[in-house]
């Protein structure tokens, strides 16, 4: 796999970057810290290919702050074809992600995506034959991880190698084989226990067959007895049915007799009601003359009440007029009080006229002074603003000169150090690093001249202008404290000046108020006289209406007698009807008494006929009890027969189950034996040990090729996978690193820092290449992230030479570094530069 192009939008700190890698072979990645170098070349390709690859960080946190949508496009060549992966993430709403896999066919992009993102990611892993962990290990040396393998203990190295080779899968396979063997073992033991139980059960089959024949014989005898008892019960039930009809007739007669009694009772109550009505009608007819006299007297009283009630509206009118007069008097009193208060206030205001006039004159004089102060303040503020502008220009110019001076001094210092390094390094003149340093040192005379010729004339001109403006400001003679005191004095006198201006119409207002007071007093006297007249009229009318309550009470008493006048005619008719209805009721009661006697005679005859009913009922109950007992016996026998048949069916099923278990037991035992073999094969001493033993020589070979290129054949690597125990007999599993030269072999830990660094990179490059080969997908791309920052100048040069010496094994080698002399060692440099809040990328 070879990267060709990377387009980044709103990913972490990068707003936009378009990186063309098609012409890059060996290049340094340069730019300030935080510009996004690591994000672009280590995280962005992994995120595009494999998705959520950063532990502890959600996909939404990868979107640049302030943006809502992110996109990464990664183009690469793989196995002779060109592919493109486009992954996006939006934080709008609930969030949305997309993933597209495309292949270039005849200069056109054709989709190779699946419907779901997870399925498309599976296609990418199948295409590359890599997951994120293997991809990262084979194509990237992340910051601080160059000696992650060599710096570990011997035992830890073997564990890391096992993880890199993916041998932990055999632990999972062994566990799965052990689980399945355990399940099979449980099934086999259960089957054996089950066979013992089934053997005991099937032995009872002959005995159960004999029990079944005995129960079937008893069942036939009991069934015949049940039929005989059922015939006797039916005969007794027929006799009882006849007697039941007669008993039902007796009950019906009792109900009819009770109904006749109820009807006679109702007729007797109706007769009592008609008797009471007859007595009331006869009383009204006896007092007819007195009732007519009381009705006449009621009419006379009603006429007197109507005459007096006609005067009642006049009383209400007088009361309303009297209430209105009282309201007017109260309103006039309130208005007079308010007018008197206003007269008093105006009189007091006119008494202080001279003092207000003096304060108004002082207010006018202070207002003139305030205008003069404000004119001076405006000129003062304009000059202050100009001084502030000049100070800002002076600071900006001073900062520019100091910045340019500091940059020139720093660059001169750096070039002087490189000049010293040229004489001390011992490198050949043809070395690219030596040539770059010589070219930089050639700039020193020009930089020193530019430092001496820095133009500081603008600073002097700005300083002179500031001094002149300060003199002009002082000549104005403006005092802020005096200005503030004058403004406060004008505010204090403002109220008095306003009050004096308002005194001009106060004399005329006082005359108007006094005239209104006189008018209100005249109206008050007139309203008082009218109120007294209304009070007298109201008293006279109340005396005339005094008899009205007594007449109203008398009318109520007479009204009770007047009602009887209208009932005299109805009373005559009611008396005649009551007498006629009472005679009819007496005749109807006599007929019902006769009917009741006939029913009682019929009942006595039926009672004699049903005397044998109880005897037959008891006989039937005994027969039913016997029949029910025989039926229970029959049901019990049927249940026993069904139970034995069920047991026999279960025994037959047990026989079939036993035969099946016996047939299945042998193949399960064979499978259990095979799983035991797999458990041993997947163990540490099985297939994983063979893989490590085969991988170590391959790792040695690749590492020695790379280390030979780095050390020019001086050193070689040998891995020891086993070591004899010192405390007792035996062999310990280990992974020691032995480094040999022309003299002898020594452990890796005994070498110097620079030599260890070359060994670290050699083994790290070898691990990456081994991992890619074992995955069946060669990654011809290597990214080294900040692998130089912790090294001094001497070791840094060794690392750079080591990287260059192995660069031919990869199609793309990218080294992320912020060190300028390291950047100068590469023919190609990819620079990250700030541009409008984003990152501009230049590939040179």
Automatic annotation (TrEMBL):
Molecular-function annotations in GO: exonuclease activity
Pfam family, one: AAA_23
Keywords: Coiled coil, Exonuclease, Hydrolase, Nuclease
Coiled coil: 226-390, 503-544, 568-609
Domain Rad50/SbcC-type AAA: start-end pairs: 5-308
Subunit structure: Heterodimer of SbcC and SbcD.
Stated name of the protein: Nuclease SbcCD subunit C
Species this protein is from: Paenibacillus antibioticophila
Lineage: Bacteria, Bacillati, Bacillota, Bacilli, Bacillales
């Amino acid at each position: 796999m070879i990267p060709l192009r990377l387009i980044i939008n709103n990913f972490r700190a990068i707003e936009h970057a378009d990186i063309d890698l098609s012409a890059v072979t060996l290049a340094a990645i340069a730019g300030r810290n935080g510009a996004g170098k690591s994000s672009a070349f280590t995280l962005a390709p992994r995120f595009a290919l494999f998705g959520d690859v950063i532990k502890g960080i959600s996909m939404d946190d990868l979107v640049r702050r302030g943006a809502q949508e992110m996109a990464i496009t990664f183009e690469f060549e793989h196995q002779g074809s060109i592919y493109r992966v486009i992954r996006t993430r939006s934080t709008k709403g609930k969030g949305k992600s997309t993933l597209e896999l495309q292949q270039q066919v005849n200069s056109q992009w054709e989709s190779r995506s699946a419907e779901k993102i997870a399925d498309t990611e599976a296609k990418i892993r199948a295409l590359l034959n890599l997951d994120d962990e293997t991809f990262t290990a084979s194509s990237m040396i992340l910051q601080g991880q160059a000696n992650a393998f060599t710096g570990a203990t011997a035992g830890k190295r073997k564990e890391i190698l096992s993880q890199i080779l993916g041998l932990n899968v055999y632990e999972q396979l062994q566990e799965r084989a052990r689980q399945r063997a355990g399940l099979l073992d449980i099934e086999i033991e259960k089957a054996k226990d089950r066979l013992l139980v089934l053997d005991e059960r099937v032995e009872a089959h002959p005995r159960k067959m004999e029990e079944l024949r005995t129960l079937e014989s008893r069942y036939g005898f009991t069934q015949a007895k049940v039929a005989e008892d059922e015939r006797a019960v039916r005969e007794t039930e027929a006799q009882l049915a006849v007697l039941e009809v007669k008993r039902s007739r007796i009950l019906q007669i009792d109900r009819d007799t009770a109904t006749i009694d109820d009807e006679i009772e109702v007729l007797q109550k109706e007769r009592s009601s008609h008797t009471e009505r007859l007595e009331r009608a006869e009383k009204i007819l006896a007092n007819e003359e007195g009732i007519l006299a009381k009705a006449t007297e009621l009419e006379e009283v009603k006429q007197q009440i109507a005459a007096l009630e006609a005067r009642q509206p006049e009383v209400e009118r007088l009361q309303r007029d009297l209430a209105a007069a009282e309201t007017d008097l109260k309103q006039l009193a309130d208005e007079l009080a308010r007018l008197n208060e206003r007269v008093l206030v105006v009189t007091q205001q006119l008494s202080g006229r001279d003092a207000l006039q003096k304060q108004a004159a002082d207010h006018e004089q202070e207002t003139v002074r305030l205008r003069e102060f404000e004119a001076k303040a405006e000129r003062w503020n304009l000059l202050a603003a100009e001084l502030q502008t000049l100070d800002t220009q002076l600071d900006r110019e001073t900062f520019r000169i100091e910045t340019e001076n500091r940059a020139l001094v720093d660059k001169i210092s750096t070039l002087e150090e490189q000049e010293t390094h040229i004489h001390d390094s011992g490198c050949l003149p043809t070395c690219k690093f030596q040539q770059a340093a010589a070219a930089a040192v050639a700039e020193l005379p020009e930089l020193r001249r530019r430092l001496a010729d820095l133009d500081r004339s603008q600073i002097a001109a700005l300083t002179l202008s500031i001094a002149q403006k300060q003199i002009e400001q002082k000549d104005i003679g403006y005092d802020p404290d005096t200005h503030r005191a004058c403004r406060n004095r004008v505010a204090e006198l403002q109220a008095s000046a306003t009050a004096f201006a308002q005194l001009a119409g106060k004399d005329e207002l006082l005359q108007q108020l006094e005239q209104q007071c006189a008018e209100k007093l005249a109206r008050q006297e007139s309203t008082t006289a009218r109120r007294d007249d209304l009070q007298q009229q109201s008293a006279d009318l109340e005396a005339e209406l005094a008899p009205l309550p007594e007449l109203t009470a008398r009318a109520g008493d007479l009204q009770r007698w007047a009602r009887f006048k209208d009932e005299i005619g109805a009373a005559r008719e009611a008396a005649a009807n009551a007498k006629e209805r009472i005679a009819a009721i007496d005749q109807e009661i006599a007929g019902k008494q006769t009917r009741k006697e006939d029913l009682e005679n019929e009942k006595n005859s039926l009672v004699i006929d049903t005397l044998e009913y109880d005897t037959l009922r008891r006989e039937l109950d005994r027969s039913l009890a016997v029949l029910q007992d025989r039926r229970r016996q029959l049901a019990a026998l049927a249940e026993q027969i069904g139970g034995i048949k069920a047991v026999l069916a279960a025994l037959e099923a047990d026989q079939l189950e036993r035969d099946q278990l016996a047939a299945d037991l042998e193949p399960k035992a064979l499978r259990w034996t095979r799983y035991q073999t797999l458990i041993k094969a997947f163990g540490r001493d099985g297939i994983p040990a063979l893989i490590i033993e085969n991988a170590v020589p391959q790792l040695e070979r690749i590492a020695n090729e790379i280390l030979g290129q780095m050390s020019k054949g001086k050193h070689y690597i040998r891995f020891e996978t086993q070591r004899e125990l010192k405390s007792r007999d035996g062999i310990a599993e280990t992974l020691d690193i032995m480094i040999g030269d022309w003299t002898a072999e020594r452990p890796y830990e005994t070498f110097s820092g620079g030599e260890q660094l070359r060994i670290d990179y050699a083994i790290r490059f070898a691990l990456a290449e081994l991992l890619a080969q074992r995955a069946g997908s060669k990654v011809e791309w290597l990214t080294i992230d900040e692998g130089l920052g912790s090294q001094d100048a001497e070791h840094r040069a060794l690392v750079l030479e080591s990287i260059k010496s192995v660069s031919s094994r990869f199609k793309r080698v990218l080294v992320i570094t912020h060190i300028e002399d390291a950047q100068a060692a590469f023919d190609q440099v990819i620079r990250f530069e700030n541009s409008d809040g984003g990152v501009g990328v230049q590939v040179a």
